[in-house]
Amino acid sequence: DVKVTQSSRYLVKRTGEKVFLECVQDMDHENMFWYRQDPGLGLRLIYFSYDVKMKEKGDIPEGYSVSREKKERFSLILESASTNQTSMYLCASSRGQGALPLHFGNGTRLTVT
Amino acid sequence: RKEVEQDPGPFNVPEGATVAFNCTYSNSASQSFFWYRQDCRKEPKLLMSVYSSGNEDGRFTAQLNRASQYISLLIRDSKLSDSATYLCVVIPNDYKLSFGAGTTVTVRA
User: Fold this and answer.
1) Interface check B33 vs A, CB under 8 A
2) Among the four A20, A49, A76, A95, which has the fewest Cβ within 10 Å?
3) Which residues of B touch A106 (CB under 8 A)?
């Protein structure tokens, strides 16, 4: 069974802090994704990566960056956290060409105060 | 206009009832469609794909209407365990999925 693990379930950070969200998958998937989920807006793609050291902007990349130094790990970085980045962050991975089926991690609920 | 729109609900139905809801999409070139299920405070999980000719998986039936650009999900003989938020997913290109905001279904005893 595919496992996508996010390092933290809940995080509370202060405005202006640098925040790292880590995601690890154990199924040798090529593709990894970061989404945020907000009520009424659904899941919105922040960044994705289809190979090591490759990254592509999603729909809402502003204020975020990513790092994929190893195939199994995809990190989301908030350079200077702001209150409007309070959200549920979901990491996902998939194999090969195309995005589906997506396997999600169980999410990190980030609160920025 | 959002790429994918869903009626947020909630749909409150008694056990055993049939419930159906749609998801409309704006990109006519979209090729692939899926329904995901998300339980409260959990991650989304793939429920079923949606094929052009329509498809069933047990009590769940998915349909695609390309002319009107919507997909639908019908749940027959609802169970308490069907209570969840159902997300539709549309793929306009290979990697960038578009998610709907979800339709909440609550099945009551």
Assistant:
1) no
2) A20
3) 42-43
